[in-house]
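Board notes (copied after class):
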Amino acid sequence: MSAISISLIMPALNAQAFIKEALDSVARQSGGLAGVEVIVADGGSSDDTRQIATRYAFVRVLDGVDNGIYEGFNRGLAGAQGDIIGFLNADDLLAEGALNIVRENFGRPDSPDHISGGVTHGNPPETGPVQYHATPMSVPGLLFGIPAINGRFFHRKLMKDLNGFAPQAGLAADREFLLRVLKSDANGGNIARVLYHYRVHSGSTTIAGDSAARARVWRAELELADYLERQNIVNGRDRKWTGRTRALARLKQRLAANRIPANTAAYQDRSHLPSAWHQTVPALIAWRYWRGKLSGY
């Protein structure tokens, strides 16, 4: 049996501040880098991102122009040669020993189509608390949970069969892709091993740790609910979850806009809530439950 090859896809745009650390985390992987490639999909950087990336023998740089990170992911996917696909952001780190864990799991006789490992969120990235994917994937989990897609690795065939990401789903394109993985009945599983470290910093679109980043995530969740229904990705009984996502996102937006503390009389005044209040309560319950479990991601 031939050795398992791995492609790590890294969209990058003016990422000189962190990309060296990200690529060093690959260079430090135990077990050697035979069969490992990092595809840097550079979106037209004007700083030293490209020059730094080309110093590494395992890196291939694909030049182009992307309208967002998911177009970069797709461009990298189109050029990937590895059996297994992973995603490494230019400002994050691959966990120590992650690639050996990936090889072990995909090298089993009952090789899965995808695996989900643990992640951290911190600054420095390795210092954050570890969160594992504690449950199987589900529609409510994928809508309300933390979309830690970088803690996942996929067979390239699965990614190709599903046509990669849908950039039109916006910042929630990772959730939308994972919903299609769920609907495909692909064989996957969770492993209690840390694979990835997210960096929390002010330049991050979704993990900046401030109210503006949270607002962007809420808008993305609202847009995702609308997109899923338009594309008929969810239907029947699953549509109740997109309705609840919509109600929750709008509630969050209104609370943030009005800065209403939860322990005040104004908060108890239902006039600031969406009209679909009957959906908001179960949505809040689902959100609290899944956020604590990484929702099977």
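Comment from the instructor: Residues 59 and 151 are 20 Å apart (CA to CA). Residues 211-291 form one domain.
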